[in-house]
Write a structure and sequence with these properties.
401 residues; single chain; alpha+beta; 11-stranded mixed beta sheet; globular
Amino acid sequence: MKKLILMLAVVAGYLNITAQTTHQSTVKDTAYHFTDIVRLPTTSVKDQNRAGTCWSWSTTSFLESEMMRMGKDSINLSAMYFVKHAYDDKAVKYVRMHGCMNFAVGGASGDVMYVIRNYGIVPMAVYEGLNYGEDNHVFGELDAVLKAYVDAVIQNPNKKLSTAWKQGFTNVLEAYLGKEPDTFEFNGKQYTPRSFADEVVGLNPDDYVNLTSFTHHPFYTSFALENPDNWTWGTSYNLPIDELMEVMDNAIANGYTFVWGSDVSEKGFATKTTGVAVIPAETAREMSGAEVAKWENTEHLLAEKDAFKKAPAPEKEITQEMRQQEFDNYLTTDDHGMHIIGKAKDQNGTEYFIVKNSWNRYNQFGGYFYASRAFVKLKTMDILVHKDAIPAQIKAKLNLK
């Protein structure tokens, strides 16, 4: 028994050292060797840390790349500004719905466009959202406090909502994230969030659309994707999966990046240990366990027997029917938002999408990873892309101008 305990202690120590080394992004050998086909301009990799705000970081990164595509200066925008306003307005809808909707920090790319339309944008330096004694984002306490607050409101103990509840909610939110500025200085000029969005960022939210691919709604129509985090009930245009993949290919080939909402709870999502997301031909087992700690736990550090981790391996042939089955059986869920910024090929000539994550420089590729076409084809929930990135014939089917 003592020997067993000693052995377990040694293994635990090894795993702890391995996890720390990986987090520090020490470069290690990988079975995959990639050559970029195209890598579009983007800002530095950010770190959402322990906050389920991937939807905001990925879409903010996308906006930054869009500015660069349009020839504007590279600017780090505030992801937390979008989080603050989304949380604030989500509380109002949650109370109006008597609590019959999901209330959590999770969201969607459409939330960012909603905030831009209604409130504007600010630079990251103006609103970092760190007003609670942490050097990086840790939302556990904040999420719990806000949920308890709105639940107390909808229980309606006074038999009538007070006139103070909404201001009280905002006060709690601002105690953690900070009070947003009415005006601020940028490059020697005064701006409001609205004027900064219009004059400096210069992106029109109406130029961007969400696209998806499921058979429980007619193709070439739009519908509100049944995702618990879709609190704005934002709509996506529905395309056959091959046409959705055509949009992605056309976007990258013509200089457009896009936001990628995807399921990442797959055995083949090995972006920390191997740097890839693939759908192995072998039957995938279900993962246990938001973010890097959840999706890639220590069990996967030990799973080196998996063939796809040793070298590129055959993948499943993905069909529209498979996508629908995975979605209907809760095997494809809206786990994570990321930013696709290019394409690459491995040593066998197989193409992958280059994905910018928001988990800091957590792997050997500096916070980026490579998603196979099979993975993207099966596990994509939706994308957000500029309308001009859509091929003309598909755009016509959607009646997009």
